[in-house]
């Protein structure tokens, strides 16, 4: 018996094997997003420390103006990432952190889209390099590699593979890394 394609079973099979991808937008944060960003960051990390860090970086001016992006789905902020000022020696760069996605929206591509847009905007603005202290399985997809390969050091002990750097539009300098004071490192 010959089967026909395009019947109800095929439609169902297509939906199950290829579920619809959420359609979200990525844009710079606005002041109207601050409460939603605080709530999503606390939910993503399971505590308020990182949410308070975002607020502190924004309030101190150490969050780089215009380099804090959100992912929005159906009017709701579901993802956020920001860049803060850091230095390697005297050379200014940007630090990617914190990055947050509502737990129910993780693994949908929202975090990746926000980070990619954020790093592209930083490069467009002429930022030379970015650093991140984070999961070594996640951040290499954006171009991050161990910072030690660039000769970057940190005055506290962290796993070598967790401290990463990448060029954005210039060279990655060699030297000691200094995060914004709000990080407490």
Question: Can you tag this structure with a few keywords?
Answer:
alpha+beta, 185 residues, N-acetyltransferase, Aminopeptidase, disordered N terminus, 26% helix, Acyl_CoA_acyltransferase, GNAT_dom
Describe the biggest sheet?
A: 9 strands, mixed
Our measurement of the CA-to-CA distance between the termini, rounded to an integer number of angstroms, reads 70 Å
Count of DSSP-assigned helices:
4
Residue ranges: pLDDT <50 for 5 or more in a row? Answer: 1-16
The rough form would be described as globular
Strand count:
9
**C-alpha Rg (nearest Å):** 19 Å
Highest-level CATH class: Alpha Beta
Structural class: alpha+beta
Q: Approximately what portion of the residues adopt beta-strand conformation?
A: 25-35%
The CATH superfamily turns out to be Gcn5-related N-acetyltransferase (GNAT)
Overall helicity? 25-40%
Order of helices and strands: HEHHEEEHEEEEE
Q: Mean pLDDT score, rounded?
A: 91
Domain module tally:
1
Name the CATH architecture.
3-Layer(aba) Sandwich
InterPro entries: Acyl_CoA_acyltransferase (IPR016181), GNAT_dom (IPR000182)
GO molecular function: acyltransferase activity, transferring groups other than amino-acyl groups
Keywords: Transferase
Pfam family, one: Acetyltransf_9
How would you describe this protein?
Keywords: Transferase. It holds the Pfam family Acetyltransf_9. Residues 24-169 form the N-acetyltransferase domain. InterPro entries: Acyl_CoA_acyltransferase, GNAT_dom. By secondary structure, the protein is of the alpha+beta class. It has one domain (23-183): 3-Layer(aba) Sandwich (Aminopeptidase), CATH 3.40.630. Helix content is 26%, strand content 31%. It has helices spanning 8-17, 34-45, 49-60, 110-124, and strands at residues 25-28, 63-73, 76-88, 91-101, 129-133, 145-146, 152-153, 163-167, 175-178. Strands 1, 2, 3, 4, 5, 6, 7, 8 and 9 form a 9-stranded mixed sheet that branches. A hairpin with a 2-residue loop joins strand 3 (76-88) and strand 4 (91-101). The longest helix has 15 residues, at 110-124.
């Amino acid at each position: 018996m010959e089967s026909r394609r395009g019947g109800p079973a095929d439609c169902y099979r297509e939906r199950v094997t290829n579920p619809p991808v959420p359609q979200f937008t990525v844009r710079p944060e606005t002041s109207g997003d601050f409460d939603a960003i605080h709530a999503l960051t606390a939910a993503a990390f399971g505590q308020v420390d990182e949410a308070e860090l975002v607020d502190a970086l924004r309030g101190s001016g150490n969050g780089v103006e215009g380099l804090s992006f959100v992912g929005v789905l159906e009017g709701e902020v579901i993802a956020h990432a920001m860049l803060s000022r850091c230095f390697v020696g005297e050379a200014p760069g940007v630090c990617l952190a914190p990055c947050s996605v509502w737990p129910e929206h993780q693994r949908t591509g929202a975090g990746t889209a926000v980070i990619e847009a954020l790093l592209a905007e930083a490069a467009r603005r002429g930022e030379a390099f970015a650093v991140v202290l984070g999961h070594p399985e996640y951040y290499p997809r954006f171009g991050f590699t161990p910072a030690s390969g660039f000769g970057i050091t940190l005055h506290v002990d962290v796993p070598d593979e967790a401290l990463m750097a990448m060029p954005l539009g210039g060279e990655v300098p060699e030297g000691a890394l200094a995060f914004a004071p709000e990080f407490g490192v």
